[in-house]
Amino acid sequence: MGPIMIGSMEVKSLNAQKSLLDTLAPGKRTRLRRLLYEFGPGNGTLMLLPIDQGIEHGPRDFFPNPESKDPDYQFRLAAEAGYSALACQIGMAERYYPDYAGSVPLILKVNGKTDIPSSDNALSTCNASVEDAVRLGADAVGYTLYVGSPSQGQDLEQLRQVRQDCDRFGMPLVIWAYPRGSALDAKGGQTTFYAIDYAARMAMEMGADVVKLNLPKIDPEKDKLTPAPYNEMDVTQEEAIRQAVESAGRALVVLSGGSKISDEKVLEQTEFIMKAGGSGVIYGRNVWQRPWNDALEIVEQIKQSLLANVTRVP
Amino acid sequence: MGPIMIGSMEVKSLNAQKSLLDTLAPGKRTRLRRLLYEFGPGNGTLMLLPIDQGIEHGPRDFFPNPESKDPDYQFRLAAEAGYSALACQIGMAERYYPDYAGSVPLILKVNGKTDIPSSDNALSTCNASVEDAVRLGADAVGYTLYVGSPSQGQDLEQLRQVRQDCDRFGMPLVIWAYPRGSALDAKGGQTTFYAIDYAARMAMEMGADVVKLNLPKIDPEKDKLTPAPYNEMDVTQEEAIRQAVESAGRALVVLSGGSKISDEKVLEQTEFIMKAGGSGVIYGRNVWQRPWNDALEIVEQIKQSLLANVTRVP
Amino acid sequence: MGPIMIGSMEVKSLNAQKSLLDTLAPGKRTRLRRLLYEFGPGNGTLMLLPIDQGIEHGPRDFFPNPESKDPDYQFRLAAEAGYSALACQIGMAERYYPDYAGSVPLILKVNGKTDIPSSDNALSTCNASVEDAVRLGADAVGYTLYVGSPSQGQDLEQLRQVRQDCDRFGMPLVIWAYPRGSALDAKGGQTTFYAIDYAARMAMEMGADVVKLNLPKIDPEKDKLTPAPYNEMDVTQEEAIRQAVESAGRALVVLSGGSKISDEKVLEQTEFIMKAGGSGVIYGRNVWQRPWNDALEIVEQIKQSLLANVTRVP
Amino acid sequence: MGPIMIGSMEVKSLNAQKSLLDTLAPGKRTRLRRLLYEFGPGNGTLMLLPIDQGIEHGPRDFFPNPESKDPDYQFRLAAEAGYSALACQIGMAERYYPDYAGSVPLILKVNGKTDIPSSDNALSTCNASVEDAVRLGADAVGYTLYVGSPSQGQDLEQLRQVRQDCDRFGMPLVIWAYPRGSALDAKGGQTTFYAIDYAARMAMEMGADVVKLNLPKIDPEKDKLTPAPYNEMDVTQEEAIRQAVESAGRALVVLSGGSKISDEKVLEQTEFIMKAGGSGVIYGRNVWQRPWNDALEIVEQIKQSLLANVTRVP
Amino acid sequence: MGPIMIGSMEVKSLNAQKSLLDTLAPGKRTRLRRLLYEFGPGNGTLMLLPIDQGIEHGPRDFFPNPESKDPDYQFRLAAEAGYSALACQIGMAERYYPDYAGSVPLILKVNGKTDIPSSDNALSTCNASVEDAVRLGADAVGYTLYVGSPSQGQDLEQLRQVRQDCDRFGMPLVIWAYPRGSALDAKGGQTTFYAIDYAARMAMEMGADVVKLNLPKIDPEKDKLTPAPYNEMDVTQEEAIRQAVESAGRALVVLSGGSKISDEKVLEQTEFIMKAGGSGVIYGRNVWQRPWNDALEIVEQIKQSLLANVTRVP
């Protein structure tokens, strides 16, 4: 892949990226390799199942598919449909993961919050530790970082402990990098290229091995509010993702889909993400808000799309 | 129990739930089994006596029955009437429990607060530790979580330490899951189905072994303020409880009665709670605000109702 | 002492209280017994000399008796007049107590603050530790708890460490239980029966061995602002004290006099306090704001009053 | 019970002993009370089942009753026959106790050894901790102390940590007090009154809550080798036990039977032990080296004998 | 020195003060004696050179004498002019002190702040530890306490750690006691007799060995805003200092000059300070904002004044 021109900027090819696995210490490498090659679609891709909506949004997300209210539904799905890993909070990991231990890797989300208070000053505090993850046999730790929140000081301090423990225990660190908070809202909000790009870089600099980003949305009205030169750039969504992936450096990037969309859109998006340099996807509601057989079916199609569109060696 | 229809949703039967005791580590199992089978009404039920009103409300709750001002009154009641356990704060546990040590199990409440400041930003900080509970011979630890409070970050961080210590010492964790705070008030307040359901799920995901909930109240005016789909659901109180019990997953649920009501109402409510999948009740003022003999009598009737209406294997 | 009628309530006699000393662990028992029997007036009474006005109010309290500005004045007074103990902050304990070590017991006050900021959000942070108290040979630790302050969360968390260290080292814990803060001001302020009663109970439940209370003041205007049933009760000051003493349960209660009053009033108040179930008094300015000989004289009279009016076995 | 004359010595009645439970801190009291009153024969007695022969002697003890080789046999026996507690090593507690958690109390033996090397220099090192006991929900900790062994220095040092942790966690400490070693052999061996009496006192002085002793055997040849005045005393076995029980002070004493004897002898011995001031018995091989029904039958008879011959309030 | 009359109050002579050195533990005594007798003017005086203006005010203080911008200038001055000690922050101590190690004692300032935010809520957080001071061979530790700031709670808590570490390592503690903050501004501000007097007492009670005060300024308009009896007192500046020195008890007091004044004023002030009971001076800008030779000259004159006016034995 040759250099890409965005406006007047020359962008370095992703192929120039050194492999992440080559730079990782043994424990992190051992564990992350399981997700990339031994479980899930393999071939260096990641297909992750998040099961944290119960605390992040409350039980309301389970109503479209009442079976999904029993956490066992998603755990079974993760194991039987062949995910690279599932991601959940401590209580679920302790009660529901044991039945699937060894059948599907676990990413322990160590922080979380409800969506009841406003997110002006968003902060997600730790309810579990990296040592909990080690004890439970997890293969990675997940952490939500609210980039730009007025509470970022506490957030970074807390992340420091998690990162240090990940280094100490050889545990891969997956950062959910979410731009958030009142100050950011005044600069175009959480979905601009500016915001997503900053989040990607921040996560990388804070020590992420894998960065989870939301898809940037191109909206000229909002982009005008972002700092220069973002306010004057004219990029497509694909270019925006590609740049954000680059901002994450050697860290791998997975992107998420958000609320439920059509099958076509899911597959189109997956292809798009992989072509833009993503290492995989993290789809929750788009999968488990379906009846069992439908869920298995769409997962199979996502897998095929991931494998067909790999552009990056992890 | 067959499938239950709520609106158009089919809800999984509680009988499908895996037993909690089967999933617990030995220390937690040993201790929780004592409450469920060796003390109290037994047969997998819980009849808990809370003695924390002295700090949560101040001495005013003792005025209707002045004898109750001496903590020994409630401790003696717990032991002689045959409760599954009593729950109190550290000072009472250290001074009054020794006389009843071994006669009735102790749940040490490790956090608490007065009701003097407003609860807009409710937070109950720890005044005792899980190690205190171990040292005093307690069989469980109690923690109040204010779900949705603007201070939830501190709350979850604090709970993490308690939960980890519970894991370390094999101590069952009982979470008083109370929706609370200014942000929630704007979404219908603390008694809606939405609020109680979210609290149940939150407590489970944070690692509760037993969740204490308040009874949801169906109030169309308040329900309108809750997020979709709660604002459009038309459920009875019984259905609401049943769903909240499900949201707590494998964690057992006990429900409380709040301020004093008539005997008939107490027994009716107990039956109702058990039929909706509850594992027991936690009645404080409804019991000890009565003279001694009356208290013993109502306790006996509650016991009978608990045993007659068991619907769930713990 | 027979049953006492307050309105329509019959109150249990204090004689029914189990002895505090009987329930204490050996280290606490050893040390507290020194204050109650070996030093001071003895016979289970407490006559405490507080020397913390220098930080709580600043040096202005020393102007009426300039000799008192030299801390040695109060230390010498405590030793020579035969107090049960003196209470002071760390700096004074390190510099002035050594000359009187062994002659009069020391209560190390471990927290304190100036009165310069408003007390709307009062919090007194720790400037010394229980281990400091052990090292200095103190026989008890003093802690000021601002019951009902919006900062009560931090207060209770901090007290927990102090209480646990007291348990660990066998050190008696004396809690200065002061209702305080903006929320309380809206409920009648810090001197109502409601406020003092709540403070007494709170201190007991948080693990106090001895509770220091201020005298409640009966003021119908303020009482109207307190929660039911306090707002409708018609109690005398003596009844209010008696009840607050009961709210402290097995913990002993000492009461203070506040700013300087006449000799007659001091003695009348002392008798009154003891008859209401108090275990002693804590008079500071009323004593050391006098010239040496006058101070010795009033102390002697207070001692006689304490011994003549004992109603409770510690 | 009046004074007893042994030779020319008047022996204080055991009834003069202060209650052990009254002197224990809350956690120890809670847990020990369970063994004495809530489980087993009750009424302050102890019927303990030791399951430590597998390491102390090797599997050879299981050959007389091959079913007993499966540890579940003894665990089930402890639970179904209604023992006060069972005592075993860490591996058995982790693998077999969970099925009986809460049904019968656990005493975790924290040290142990094989009988392969000679016992000239006996020392039993710790293979588990008091914290393990807490985590597993045990109600007491067991420790074997080899009184008089040339390795006693290491033994006492190790016991100190166990004892401190027992104090910290409120865990009762049961000391298996065994006279042992080459030096003792030169003074009459491990079964003399001298040796047992010394062991009882040693265990008490080291902080035992319960002391497990072997029955002294009166053997004039061996007694001659003991230090004065033991070498000149002429006591019966019952008097020897009574004195050893007194040497254990406020600690309770249980006695064991050793290798299998006839039913008559077992029951005779049980009565004898209780009349001499013992609080119970610890019979292992005498029970589980029998077929299931025979075992249940003898246990029932032992229970009756214990309850019929109580002479001491714990 | 006879008694001094202030209004109608008789003030105890400072000669009645017990020696500070006599009350110190060996490590503190060893180190402080170096400053008082082995370095600097000696004879129990202190001439301290503060070099913390770079962070407290920024580099602007160095512009009057550009040579002073190189920290080596002040370090060399401290050593060559024969100061009792210099006081600076960790970075300077690590980079510049080694060249003068042993030539002049070091006081490590462990907290500091910029003057960019307003001082309404002043708090100076620790950027170094007492252990750093030990490691660097310092002879004392400096700490800035903002007496009366709304952040005083955090300040006192932080000071507690510093004080405990000073006790642990035998390190003298010098407290810069500065009245500060919005609440104090409403009571006359930071230069009144009231404010300085309170600060002196506070520092002493918090464990200072040496207290650094600013000179009080008599301003009737401001004094009216102070609490009684300060608002009605009519004292000279000298009397105010003398009283503040007394409020510091056995702790030694040094006073500072603030911004640059004339040579005459510096010497007049030095004499004045010593006659009022001060133990020395801490002059920074008044010295190093001069060219090298002028600086050496004024230092020599200050030394002579200190030695000629000693009124207190340390």
Short overview:
Chain A is an alpha/beta fold and 314 residues long. Helix content of chain A is 40%, strand content 16%.
Report on this model:
- The structure is a homopentamer of 314-residue chains.
- Chain A has 314 residues and is of the alpha/beta class.
- Chain A has helices spanning 20-23, 26-38, 53-56, 71-80, 90-95, 130-135, 152-169, 182-185, 193-205, 220-223, 237-247, 263-275, 285-288, 292-308; strands at residues 4-6, 9-11, 46-50, 85-88, 106-109, 111-112, 125-126, 140-147, 173-179, 210-214, 252-256, 280-282.
- In chain A, the strands form three sheets. In chain A, strands 3-4-5-8-9-10-11-12 form an eight-stranded parallel beta barrel, surrounded by six helices. In chain A, strands 1-2 form a two-stranded antiparallel ribbon.
- In chain A, strand 1 (4-6) and strand 2 (9-11) form a beta hairpin.
- In chain A, helix 9 (193-205) runs parallel beside helix 11 (237-247) and helix 12 (263-275) packs parallel to helix 14.
- The longest helix of chain A has 18 residues, at 152-169.
- At the B-C interface, helix 5 and strand 7 of B face strand 2, helix 7, helix 9 and helix 11 of C.
